[in-house]
Structure formats: C-alpha cells, structure tokens
Amino acid sequence: VTDWRAVRRLVPEVLGALVRRYGRFDACEDAVQEALLAAAAQWPVQGWPSNPRGWLVTVASRRLADQLRSDTARRRREQVDAARIPPPPAGGDAALHLGARGPAGEDTLTLLFLCCHPALSPASQVALTLRAVGGLSTAEIARAFLVPEATMAQRISRAKQRIKATGATFDLPPPAEQAQRLGVMLQVLYLVFNEGYTATSGTRLVRAELTGEAVRLARELHRLVPGDGEVAGLLALMLLTDARRPARTAPDGSLVPLSEQDRSLWDAEAIAEGVALVTRALSNGPLGPYQLQAAIAAVHDEAPSAEATDWAQILALYTLLERTAPNPMVSLNRAVALAMVRGPAAGLAVLDSLSTDERIAGFHHLVSVRAHLLEMAGDRDAARSGYREAARRTTSEPERRHLHTRAARLG
Amino acid sequence: VKYMLLIYGNEEAFGSVGAEAFAEILRETDALNQELFESGELVGAYGVADQVNATVVRVTAGAPVVTDGPYAEAKEYLGSFTIVDCDSLERALEIAARNPAARYWGVEVRPLMHEANVEP
Fold this sequence. Notes:
heterodimer; A: mainly alpha; 0% strand; elongated; B: alpha+beta; 4-stranded antiparallel sheet; two-stranded antiparallel ribbon; 6 strands
C-alpha cells in the first residue's frame, strides 16, 4: 500500500477495532485521527510499514492510552472516582489484542449508522461521516466547506458529544429502525455529493474530492447492502450526474445547460455503470425516489442529442416521482417535461397551479422555469424580465450569470 | 449554507438604549456567540468601528485616492456583522431572533452566495 486513499479506506476497520475493545467512540475517533496525522508525517520519511492497519491500530491505541491516563490523572486531582476507566492497552502489544476483526465491512456500516445519527444536524452528520468513515482530517473538511478549522473541529466534537448523550452504542441499529436510518444515511451521502458537485466557486480541487468521496462511500454502502434498491439508486444517480461534469462548465467557468452540452465529453464508462445499476434496481423493486431520479438521469445520458431526448419517458418518470415523493421541485421539473411533450402552454398551466404553493411561490427556480417556458412560447419580453427577476433571486453566482446570459440573448 | 447577519444603526440608535442595557446586550451577544461556536456554526462575528474611522480608496487614472468618512450623511451604518454556517434559512432566522439587537434595531439576514476562489 503506497496510496493515501487506500490508507483512508482502512479507517473504519481501525476505528471499529478500537471502539469494540474500549468503547468510548469519541475518544477512539480522536485517537485514530492522531494516528493518521502521525502516519502522514512519518511514512513518507521513514518508509511505509509492511502492515499499515496494524501500525495504525497500535499507534491509535497508544494515543488512546495516553489520553485515558491523563484523563484519569485529572480526575484523581479532582478527586473524582476513576474506577470505571478501562485499563490502558499494553503499549506495542495492543495490535495483538486488537487483531480480531468484525465481519468484513460491518464496521463501516456500523460507523455510517452512528455518524448519520438522527439526533445530529445534517451539517454535523456530513462532517462526522467525512472524518470518522472517510478518514479526512478536520483541516481538509474545513477547507472543503470553507469554514475556519476551529469551527469544523467544534462541529465534529459537538456531534460526538451528542451521540454520546443519546447513549448510542457501536452496534447496528435494531432491524426495525434500519430502513429509516438508512434513509438518513443516503441523504447525508447525497449532501456530500451535491456540496462537491454544485459548488463552482471556492476551492475547486477539494470540492471535486468531496464528489469522489461521496461516490466511494455510496459504492462501499452498495457493496454492504447490495439488495437495497435505494442505495443502488443513489449510487447510480451520482454516477449518471457526475458523468456529465466534463461538459458542465465552459472554459470561462460559466455553466453549460444540459441541452447545450457537448455529449462526446460525457464519461461513457460511468454512464454504462449507472444505467446497469438503476436497471437492475428498478426490475427488483420496490421503487424509491433515488431510483426514479437515477432513471431520469439515465434517459438524459442515453440520448445521443438534446433533440433526441425521450421526453415522454421523462414525463412518465417525473409523474411517478411526484406521486412517490411529492415535492414542489419535482413538480417544477414535471412542468418542464410536460412542456417538452405537449407544448409550453401545458407546462405554464402547471406553474400557475404551483405559484399558490407557499413553499415555492417566491423561489427563483419557479421564476426561471416560467421564463424558460415563456421563451418556448415565443413571449420574448416576458421571458427576458423573468430571467432577470430569477437572477436577482438566486443565491448561486454561476446560476446568476447564466440567467443574465439567457436574458441578454433575448435582446 | 452561510448567512450574514447584519446590524445597522447610528449614534442615536445605539446610544439611546442606555449604558446598562448596552452592556447587557454585549453580554447576551457574547453568550450567543459562544453557543454558536460550540455548536460549530460560528464562522466569525465582528464589531465594526464607527464610520468616523472609515476610509475609502478609489483608483483614479491608475493612482489611489484616499478619502475619509464619506458617508457622514448616511442615516444608518453597519455596526456589526456575524457570519454563520448553518443548515437552513429557518435556522439562520432563529439565530437572528436570539440576537439581542433584534429587540432594538433589527437584524438583517442575507445568504452568502459567492466565496473567494482560492487554492489552499
């Protein structure tokens, strides 16, 4: 092993070994991070160990022991009962005691459930998952989300305190809870993916890494629960969306809409993998929103040109999605598909019914979709002012520039 | 998602609450900031110097021209601002409502939409 990504893949197993032996998820997680930092400093200089996993377990155990010892000493000074502190591991032999592994991959799954605990806020779930499962350092996560390192450190530490307070243990949740908890986990992975995918400002490189990390974790999760259609659906959705990335931005950094992208730049291998995944998931049922969104992405990805897009199929899928997971954003997309199949007037009629929905009424998406359909209908003046209005309302800079361009094109 | 919470006012507005109430506002603000730091949501909180200390730089024909406090006639100026990174607009509004300034002068909440495109 000489690849740092391969080292990060060992993290759930190393952390799992420590937590199963000593309990105390929060302290073990800190110890594993310190071991990773030590590895990053030492291995490139002193050479890579023959057994990286064993090295990390040993060093992390020592760090944990140091931590527990100083905690114990402090407690003694404070004259607090320290009897329940577990005995520190015996130096270099720690790896021997910690040799036993859980069933392959189960540590990763258990950790994912723990990090995506429903008692945490989405931002905390994301941060903790990236650190404890992804093995990213606090500094890296802070950079990716453009917040000070102290803010991110505090967010992670607070998340661990919260988990401790809920009394959650390092075990898989009871089977009855698993489906719902898996749903939270998928949301967290999708958030990580979108954070990397939609951000075109900030540190581009690190952001692209977030997308890669989300795909890696979704792939790992799919390997662990291959029978779950929604896990397969999310992985497919990520692959089918990310496949278009090379065509999504122009050399000047501006957004290129789907209909204008150079499809020869799309990643054919990722598309083939995504299509195969979603096809298998859909034929095995039950249907879910990630599978349906992946199916829609697949229809777009398989069209040789924008004109050749099978809009009737997309309309059918959005109608199904609207029924499965009602949400005004889905209704907006269905309105676009309807306009493509039956003409702009049909789409505009759906928008009129949506504009009474408080959740979406003032939303820039509604305004920009209306402008788009008005443009299709040939009402250039109304479309132009619609694009300008939407540009004022969006909070995304690339989108704002794109909307101004659309308005300018109408003269 | 990052939001900027801005507090505007002027000498009269900031002075009219009285020294004791103002000190209490500062104590409450400190406690709120500490809480936001501990929850991992605080990016930064800053008090802005009075506008008599403001300086404006303009480059005219390639040369910088520096002028003092050009906004003396402005009715209100920026007194302080806080940047938070939280899950939703609802949460940002909740934080704004907890700010004691909301009881006196109001807190303006604006989403941040663009960040410096730098490589670390």
